[in-house]
Q: What sequence folds into this?
């Protein structure tokens, strides 16, 4: 008997005034209490939304999800078919720009791989064969590999490139593949991407060695 | 039972099972679509099949061609005058419908895609709604004009109407097909393909059984959940009784009709009606015409609880067990209110079988007008019985994860889901049968349309037996689907009750109210029986008025839907932030990657 039974911690102690001001009960009108009128109100609201949105979706009248996002109606962007407009200088997946003859503009100078803070670019340079007029002036990439998982999309490679051979203007995200090796983009794939204007070249002119506009030294010049 | 009767029974079972399983799948789709549309989302619609334009042309061309062929068929076989009386109004009204409908569709696509020739440019200037109003006026004009057609001109008029209808169908089909451009067209069926893809995924998913669960019961529970929902449909009549006539040469006067033979299947009676007896075999469009009728439904609905309770027990999971217990106690307590709320209805209809109930509603008024209060009570109890929102505590995901099917995956889970939606379809069918006239349509009797208020006949139109049967079956399935649609809407409108609120509602509100409803109904019925013929006549007219209200409401609903569909959309542009200013300068959402 000496031991008191411990009071239930979930019950408030008996005979003690509850401190504080009582919270006002929500407004319980008869119509709220009867449930059915409120239920009908709710049904009319949901049905209005349903019929309006269904009609607009079926008839292709949905609002533009970007411009009219505050307007009533479906505001989902159907991602692969619809996209938000990207800024003009959005840095997407890299592409290798092409020369007139379809070869990559890249001269395998390794500027981009040197500039890359993530070290995601790996280039194996090759020499043009003896007798080619480009031999001695530039090399070509035997393999040009970018690990898109390592890439941090900083754009330094684009800025480092002296011949405008690498660009990030495809407007593409890295696609969610199902294995890591699929993120290793090779030369052919990088060359296959087009810019947002849809072309594989760039607007900057390119001068072959020997052309009158070629800025570099020529074989006839002394160093 | 002859082999023919066995065959017919199997056909009826197949109709019911296929209807239930298909509409259950479609109901899952409708459920998700509603949730998306109510919340201003697109919802799941990523599954897609790309159709080549040739296939699209074929799909556009086939249905009108087939319908046109059907319209021409009676002309080739020769038209009898009594047949012409039937086909003339149908063909004429269908022709008007096809005309305005194709004009509206063409007008819409011209307004979206641009006109291809001068006739389309002319159409572009017309408001689609005025085309529709013109069509409604044309319907009325044709209706009035047909009553002035003299008796001997009926056959050529019917032929002409059939030819016009077929021509309109062919022309609209070919013109639409010619407007289909080259290329591929994505077919999503408004997200229905996504539901199909989900079902396929479920079949191949891993079937996980908890290691310490009861393996046998774990496998048995989904079957026990699905089975009662399917078999409840057996007693529900889904169409007028069909009459197959026996071979007249074998039919002897005074003798019982010869046994049902295969050749009798081709001899559907031409005309049935109140005064016409079937000279052959009657086939109820109902899997089993049990004399216990409604009691069988209650019994089977009560069995449904076993599946949920077993699943909760066999899963070896506390959440599951809680869900199973909740399901069991909820279904047991609402069973009482459900049964008693229908006693008033049973007293009114004077039968416990479902076909006489439908017959009573066809002859008098729909149950919703006779027993509106019982309808509300029964609907509430039914939602609780089917574990639908707002009574879905057994699977209340915010409290007990997913309730009794936490530990289920793959197709076993899919069977619970299917069972739930089949239950939904079945409960809608029960509601339709008891309160919305079942397969009966207002003023449609076994011998045709007869719009009459009391004894004054406003309009009469004879129909043959087969078309009445088909229309009644379509009416039943259509009403059931509509009722399901409404029931699904509850889910996207109502929040879930607390469990104590649920029990309080069941025992302290629904039960006393349904007993009160029963008592009041009994008193009123006694009063009507004791009242004079004046009261009975007035009630009969009132009943016909309710039928008229239903017909008018249907027509008004159709007009409202079409007008709503054709209503133009006005949009305002909200440019608030710098981002949206940029987006506006870039021209809004882009269609392709390269543009973005």
A:
């Amino acid at each position: 008997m000496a031991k008191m039974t411990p009071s239930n911690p979930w019950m408030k102690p008996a005979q003690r005034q509850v401190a504080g001001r009582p919270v006002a009960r929500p407004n319980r009108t008869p119509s709220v209490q009867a449930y059915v009128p409120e239920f009908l109100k709710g049904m009319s609201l949901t049905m209005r939304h349903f019929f309006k949105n269904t009609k607009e979706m079926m008839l292709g009248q949905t609002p533009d999800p970007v411009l009219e996002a505050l307007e009533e109606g479906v505001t989902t962007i159907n991602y692969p078919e619809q996209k938000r407009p990207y800024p003009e200088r959005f840095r997407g997946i890299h592409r290798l720009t092409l020369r007139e003859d379809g070869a990559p503009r890249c001269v395998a100078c390794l500027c981009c791989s040197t500039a890359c803070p993530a070290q995601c670019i790996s280039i194996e340079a090759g020499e043009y064969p003896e007798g080619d007029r480009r031999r001695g002036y530039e090399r070509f990439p035997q393999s040009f590999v970018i690990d898109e998982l390592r890439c941090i999309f900083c754009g330094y490679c684009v800025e480092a490139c002296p011949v405008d051979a690498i660009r990030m203007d495809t407007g593409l995200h890295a696609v969610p593949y199902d294995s890591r090796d699929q993120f290793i983009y090779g030369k052919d794939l990088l060359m296959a991407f087009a810019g947002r204007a849809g072309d594989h070249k760039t607007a900057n002119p390119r001068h072959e060695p020997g052309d009158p506009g070629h800025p570099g030294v020529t074989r006839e010049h002394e160093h | 039972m002859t082999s023919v009767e066995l065959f017919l029974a199997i056909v009826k079972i197949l109709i019911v099972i296929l209807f239930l399983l298909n509409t259950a799948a479609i109901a899952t789709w409708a459920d998700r679509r509603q949730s998306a549309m109510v919340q201003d989302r697109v919802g799941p619609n990523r599954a897609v099949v790309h159709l080549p334009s040739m296939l699209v042309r074929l799909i556009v061309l086939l249905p009108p061609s087939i319908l046109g062929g059907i319209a021409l068929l009676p002309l080739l076989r020769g038209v009898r005058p009594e047949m012409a009386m039937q086909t003339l109004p149908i063909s004429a009204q269908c022709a008007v419908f096809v005309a305005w409908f194709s004009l509206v569709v063409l007008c819409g696509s011209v307004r979206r895609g641009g006109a291809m020739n001068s006739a389309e440019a002319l159409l572009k200037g017309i408001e689609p709604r005025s085309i529709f109003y013109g069509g409604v006026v044309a319907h009325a004009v044709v209706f009035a004009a047909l009553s002035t057609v003299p008796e001997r001109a009926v056959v050529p008029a019917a032929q002409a109407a059939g030819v016009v209808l077929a021509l309109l169908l062919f022309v609209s089909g070919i013109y639409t097909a010619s407007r289909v451009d080259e290329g591929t067209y994505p077919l999503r069926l408004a997200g229905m393909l996504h539901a199909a893809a989900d079902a396929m995924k479920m079949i191949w998913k891993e079937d996980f059984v908890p290691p310490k669960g009861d393996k046998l019961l774990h496998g048995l529970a989904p079957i026990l959940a699905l089975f009662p929902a399917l078999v409840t449909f057996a007693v529900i009549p889904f169409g007028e009784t069909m009459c197959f006539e026996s071979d007249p040469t074998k039919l002897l006067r005074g003798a019982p009709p010869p046994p049902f033979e295969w050749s009798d299947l081709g001899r559907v009676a031409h005309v049935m009606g109140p005064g016409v007896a079937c000279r052959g075999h009657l086939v109820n469009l109902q899997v089993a015409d049990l004399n216990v009728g409604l009691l069988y439904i209650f019994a089977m609905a009560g069995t449904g609880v076993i599946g949920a309770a077993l699943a909760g027990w066999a899963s070896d999971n506390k959440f599951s067990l809680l869900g199973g217990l909740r399901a069991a106690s909820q279904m047991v307590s609402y069973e009482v209110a459900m049964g008693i709320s229908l006693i008033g209805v049973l007293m009114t209809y004077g039968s416990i079988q479902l076909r006489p109930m439908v017959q009573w509603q066809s002859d008098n008024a729909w149950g919703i007008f006779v027993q509106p209060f019982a309808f509300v009570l029964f609907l509430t109890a039914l939602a609780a019985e089917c574990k639908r929102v707002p009574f879905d505590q057994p699977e209340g995901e915010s409290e007990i994860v997913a309730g009794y099917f936490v530990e289920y995956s793959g197709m076993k889970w899919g069977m619970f889901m299917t069972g739930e939606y089949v239950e939904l379809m079945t409960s809608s069918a029960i509601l339709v049968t008891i309160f919305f006239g079942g397969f009966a349509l207002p003023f449609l009797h076994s011998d045709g349309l007869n719009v009459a208020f009391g004894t004054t006949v406003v309009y009469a139109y004879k129909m043959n037996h087969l078309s009445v049967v088909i229309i009644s079956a379509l009416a039943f399935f259509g009403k059931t689907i509509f009722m399901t649609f409404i029931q699904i809407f509850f889910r996207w409108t109502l929040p879930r009750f607390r469990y104590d609120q649920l029990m309080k509602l069941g025992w302290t509100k629904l039960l006393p109210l349904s007993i009160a409803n029963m008592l009041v109904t009994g008193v009123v019925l006694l009063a009507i029986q004791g009242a004079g013929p004046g009261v009975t006549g007035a009630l009969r007219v009132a009943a016909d008025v309710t039928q008229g209200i239903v017909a008018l409401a249907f027509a008004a609903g159709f007009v409202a839907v079409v007008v709503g569909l054709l209503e133009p959309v006005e949009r305002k542009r909200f440019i608030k932030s710098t981002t949206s200013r940029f987006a506006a300068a870039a021209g809004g959402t882009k269609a392709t990657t390269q543009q973005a």
